[in-house]
Amino acid sequence: MQLVEREEIDEDDDLFEAIDKLIAQGINAGDVKKLQDAGIHTCNGLMMHTKKNLTGIKGLSEAKVDKICEAAEKIVNFGYMTGSDALLKRKSVVRITTGCQALDDLLGGGIETAAITEAFGEFRSGKTQLAHTLCVTTQLPTSMKGGNGKVAYIDTEGTFRPDRIVQIAERFGMDPGAVLDNIIYARAYTYEHQFNLLLGLAAKMSEEPFKILIVDSIIALFRVDFTGRGELADRQQKLAQMLSRIIKIAEEFNVAVYMTNQVISDPGGGMFISDPKKPAGGHVLAHAVTIRLSFRKGKGEQRVCKVFDAPNLPEGEAIFQITPGGVADAKD
């Protein structure tokens, strides 16, 4: 099966305006280069930074930043739009199949682009298996409910297994070598490293047609690098900055974001709560993600996914199965 076709992707070109267009508005090419070096590759991305942030870039004075922002405002409309325009914009959202029909139905078609989908649950609840399956299904053509795009995978727990990708690609009848070539993978060891990997991603996404960013898991390194109550405020602030960066990537390049999260036990919940485990990351993470899914183990290889919070999905559950070929429909 043919993978990511260049021609089909051209219709996405109006998603973002390249930063080079500032040169036509009279901005010095050297200054544009400084923006690119700072990880800003589109005018849309530029408008997502505060002027304070921009003046922090070496060689950009306040006067220059004002001029750059004025030029960018001429290229990108960042003001109000009507509800009808917003509806039209939502039409560019792609839903990527999870490989399981029941799970797709629960999610309204699949994992959506321009949004963050978070899966939390205990170990062995299927979060990383879904991440591996999405690595393959994202590359399926849109006619097969795929995303027709490339995959970026940031791994903080060391659980990425290319041999699993090979098995899943074979299930979907795709060439495993080509599938693996379309995945860029990075192993992060500290939260700072994780943040820098996100900054470097904008450059790649402005050049190639990515459709999903997978972060497995978002919280692990924060739980290691910050310890105790004394560092909690600092941890949450750094986490908020990282999530803000991820939301901007999702919206700027219309990519789906799938993150896994760990759980914490809540001993203060008392005896009346049936499941005293809640997602890590607190309110900061809860407000940043668009769709929260709770995963738990079912019988045998079956897993249960529950919609925990979503702006446009009803609460419900779906059962899926973990097979050698990834996430699939549950067999009774």
Compact summary:
By secondary structure, the chain is an alpha/beta fold. It has helices spanning 6-9, 21-24, 29-37, 43-46, 51-55, 62-75, 83-90, 101-106, 127-137, 162-171, 176-181, 191-207, 220-225, 232-252, 282-288, and strands at 95-96, 111-112, 115-120, 150-155, 183-187, 210-216, 256-261, 263-265, 277-279, 291-297, 302-309, 317-323, 326-329.
Could you explain how this protein is built, in words?
With 332 residues, the chain is an alpha/beta fold. The protein contains 15 helices and 13 strands. The strands form 3 sheets. The protein has a 9-stranded mixed β-sheet with strand order 5-4-6-7-3-10-11-12-13, with helices on both faces. Strands 1-2 form a two-stranded antiparallel sheet. It has a two-stranded antiparallel ribbon with strand order 8-9. α9 (127-137) packs across α10 (162-171), α12 packs parallel to α14 and α14 (232-252) packs parallel to α15 (282-288). It is globular.
Instruction: Assign an overall shape.
Output: globular
Q: Estimate what percentage of residues fall within beta strands.
A: 15-25%
Helix content: 25-40%
Distance between the termini: 31 Å
* Helix-strand category: alpha/beta
Low-confidence stretches: 4-12
Instruction: Trace the largest sheet across and list its strands.
Output: 5-4-6-7-3-10-11-12-13
Q: Give me the number of helical elements.
A: 15
Order of helices and strands: HHHHHHHEHEEHEHHEHEHHEEEHEEEE
Round the mean pLDDT to the nearest integer and report it. 90
Q: Tell me how many strands there are.
A: 13
How would you sum up the major sheet?
A: 9 strands, mixed
C-alpha-based Rg, rounded:
21 Å
